[in-house]
Amino acid sequence: MKSFHKTLKGALLASTVMVLPAAAFAQESEDTAGPQDDIEEVVVQGQYIPDEKRATSEISNVLDATELARTGDSDIAVALQRVTGLSLVGEKYVYVRGLGERYSSVLLNGSVLPGTDPTRRVVPLDIFPTALLEEALVQKTYSPEFPAEFGGGVINLRTKAVPDEGFFRFGLGGAYNTVSTDDGLSYDGPDSEAFGFAGGRRNIPDEVLRDITLESLTPDELEAAGEAVAAPAQWSIDGEPNLPDFNFELAAGDNFTIGDTKVGFVTAVTYTNQYTNKFGVRRNFALVGDGQLVPNENFSPDACQGVEGIDPADCGLRSTEQDISLNGVVSLGIELDPNNVLKLTSTILRQSTKEATIEQGDFAFDPGTVRTRSRTDWVERQVWANQVEGAHTFALFGDSDTFFDTQLDWRFNYSRTDRDAPLRRETVYEYEDFDQIFRFDPSPQSGRTTWGALDDEQYEVGFNLTQPMSVGTTPVDIKAGFTYFDKQRSSGFVRYIFDFPGGDTNALRERVPETIFGPVNIDPNGIVLEEQFDPSDAFDASLENWQGYLAADIQVTPKLRAALGARYEDSEQVADTVNRLTDEPIVVIQNNSQWLPAATLTYEFTDNVQLRAGYSKTLSRPDLRELTSAPFLDNELDQLRRGNPFLEITEIDNFDARFEWYFGIGESATIGAFYKDFTNPIEETFSFQGEQPFLTYQNALGAEVYGIEAEIVKNLDFQDWFGWKWLGGRDFYVNANGSWIDSEVSLPDPNDVPIDVRNTNLVRPLQGQSDLLANFQFGFEDFESGEQAAIILNYTSDRIFLVGIQGRPDVIEEPPIMLNFVYRRNFETWGRPLQVSFRAENLLDDDFRLLQGDQLFQQYDIGVTLSIGLNYTF
């Protein structure tokens, strides 16, 4: 079989797409495979099936550059929610087939992508601009060339390839949101924040950056340390107008020839600055004796009703997030000859979030007293991924009639993830009725200052070898591969509080924090700095995994294709932390060696109709942080999370089937079903440290997930059907898909677990799993004028947001129904195309809502977003 590396672009893509199946090669090798009559039937089967769907023997969906342009989504997280069976959580996390975050894997150019958030298993995909991506593959059935951690599916993101011709593109845009482009909250910060950099003033002061405790300091050193921690003016939150959202893109690429070597490159930089207001209510509930839910923490106007001197409208949740993204990619391709290609890709993704939050209302620890809690936060997340790839084709067996050209691709990947949370401030002011004044609360949670950091380093090296051959007249691809993966993680948090002196401090506590913690008040006889470290605040962890697979792709008959194989993984996870109660070290070592089989059969009824069915066994390991007791703060929930050193690996048996009908160019209809059986699934639950609740994890007894998926893509030829010539060259289409999914998880008997972690519902759906997912898209394209328009509807049914414990019901999320409109058109300007785009999001003005029983747990308006963009190509 001859090489399919015919062009520079095709060659560079070859290392990141799956190897073409044996049937596709048969037509190119008719001179050596025997008489043409022997393989003619093989060649014609599936000729109307799109190449990508033929290239893989598995059930998959692909979002290519055309699809991404149709919807106009700025980041891949929003774009992926339109794929059948995928749902979007928190505007950044993509769940495959409604399963939770631990069952969705993300690869970047075929290599494992590290996460950027220690509180999550799933990779936040909102940091990936669509402008940097060539396409995204979503594979829902497992094949052995992918890592064994596979639940709902795998998402493989592919960065831009080398262009066919040189270009330079500049784009900019702006957006207005009816809720967020308004007055918001903010606090003082350096000018470098505009580009997503914290600045030196947020660094841990030298006075406390040392391997000694505060108790060992002299009084003068302790005073200097307190002044240094309090010094940065990042305490008070002010009302500030939020500017309209802004983004720009710069991209360039070219290719040229040096002797016999072809070289090409593409580089792109994107920048986004976006504001989000979350103004609403947030509550937590307790269960009283008669089974009634009553608020024990209530940030809403009704918490301040009847309190003299306070306007109830001032009570509730108010939060403003400013997200700054700065991303870049550089890709260099070298084609030594048509059969030997190298590709180097370096990608850096940065997203920084500046958050200012004020919660005013009733606190759980002292009901009936109105308090105001303020929090200022800055989080920087960065992924730096570097990959060297090679794709080679050679005649390993010479001029053989049985063995065709061998294909070898290899990769080396180094990735680094950094998450820094410098200088997080918290203050609490208590409203005192006797004189109707808010005064600073001197309790430990008020005035707390925190620094945190998490660093991941990943090394991955591997290769894939494909040997096409012909056994008689039967085309066969033998595939083998090896991967070595090593991940090292280090994480640490430090917390400081201020101890107030005895006596009457009312006058001082009426002041703003900058005055309270001024140098004149920090003194060994006044306000004193104290450490509030948890022994498990710092931990180290690692994962080493040796992997190999062997598979065969066989065209059994002209109509039947079989993909069979198995993957072997030998892994060791190590988590090293300290017991938070006894200060004793805790070292968790989890070894696992396992063979994981996979098989998929594809039967082609006719040239454009086929049926796939598959079985595979996969697993899901506990995340490194989930094996430690180290605490992490989930900013979205304002809840602590801790791991569980006794978690076991989850095993999954996967069964899939899908019927596919391709009835025209770009037209198709599919319907499929799946069933998954989980052994030792890991579920989220609550526990308590004293009276403070925190999120943790436990193995359930078992779980089942099953569902049906359907999709139709149809061109609408209105001009031919109705003679509507006035539509001109506009090609209309409709794209609709839907999924019905059901799940059931069985949790341990309450007699076997402590009372504070007893789940309310021992049998319930999996957390985060929605019963119904639906997408509808209607639009048109005019390729001559470059005009596109689409109406896009996305529906996700209710799902469990937080599990209920101690008799309290589960917290249910009611995701908003998203109705969007996008329009773009090209105009000829100075002989070059200028693209103008318009987008309207959330036209139904739906909101974010969480319910616990019949009580409102959290709610805030999302608003309608109107955006416009300009893109000019030189």
Automatic annotation (TrEMBL):
Keywords: Cell outer membrane, Membrane, Receptor, Signal, TonB box
Keyword match 4Fe-4S: no
Transmembrane spans: none
GO cellular component, as recorded: cell outer membrane
Keyword Membrane attached: yes
Protein family according to the UniProt entry: Belongs to the TonB-dependent receptor family.
Classification via PANTHER family: PLUG DOMAIN-CONTAINING PROTEIN, TONB-DEPENDENT RECEPTOR
The name this protein goes by in its record: TonB-dependent receptor
Organism: Eilatimonas milleporae
